[in-house]
Amino acid sequence: MAQTTRTATAPEVVGRPVAERSVGDWLQRMHDASRQRAYVGTFVVAGGGRLSSARIWHVCDGTQQMERVESLTGAPRSTFRRNDQVLTFLPESRVVLAERRESLGLFPQLLKSNSASIAQHYRVREMGSERVAGFEADVVELRPTDTLRFGYRVWIEKDTGLTVKLQTLDGQGQVLEQAAFSDLKFDAPISMANLEQMMGHTEGYTLEKPEMRKTTAEAEGWVLRQGVRGFHPMSCYQRSVGGPQARQAPTLQWIFSDGLASVSLFIEPFVAGRHGQPKSLAMGATHTLTRRFGDWWLTAVGEVPTETLAAFAQGLERQK
User: Fold this and answer.
1) Helix, strand, or coil here: 190?
2) Facing residues of 132 across strands?
3) Does residue 186 carry a pLDDT above 90?
């Protein structure tokens, strides 16, 4: 049963009236709410014939953000984030993974970057209002202007601006994936000190820290001969994993985004015994494409149509 408890009076909506909000206005409102509000809730993700759920705790004291995400389905998994420091606890293997990321990339966060070009590739349409998890929400559609990206239907809690439900839509408007809160509580009494203490309990776990070295694709001998409209390079890393899973050579991860959708190109040396035939896969809104480039193997992954991944693959070129 949906939880509708509210422990503090929600602030009034400020800024432009609903009818006048642009794509940028809506996205910034959602982004600010996901980072600045304190909340706890359970969200469910459905797509590709699979269903998963997790419990999330989020708190911000004005200078620090802390987040805890506890998987409720599948293998036990607990993830903690303090600003850009992320620890993922895997109880079955007694391993904790340490990384640096500014976001977990999970619901209810949608905005990937504050790209000024978002409005060139998405149009906003206001659809009215509905109740989700006991809260009144504005319903907004973000419709792509081309076939290189998916659309989104977003339920935005009226008082706070937090995304309470999100659907990813294909070109025909069919739902590929949905994430929604089944229960939600704002301004919950979440103790940042308690979360920090839980995050620090690594006794009995093996700490693994994947090595990530910031670089550029050009420095590693790769260029995108022809860009994909609307997608801009965000970052590039050489990734390597220690321990028994270590690879002989690091993997290059080149990340692109249009502000909402993101694409990662993973490039590594081709190994005949590990890499099979080129293929494309889809699981909910996430599509994957693999391809061989001579002595190299490309894995392109993103919440975009397969044709978008193919465009990245076609434009990729080895320079040395």
Assistant:
1) coil
2) 135
3) yes
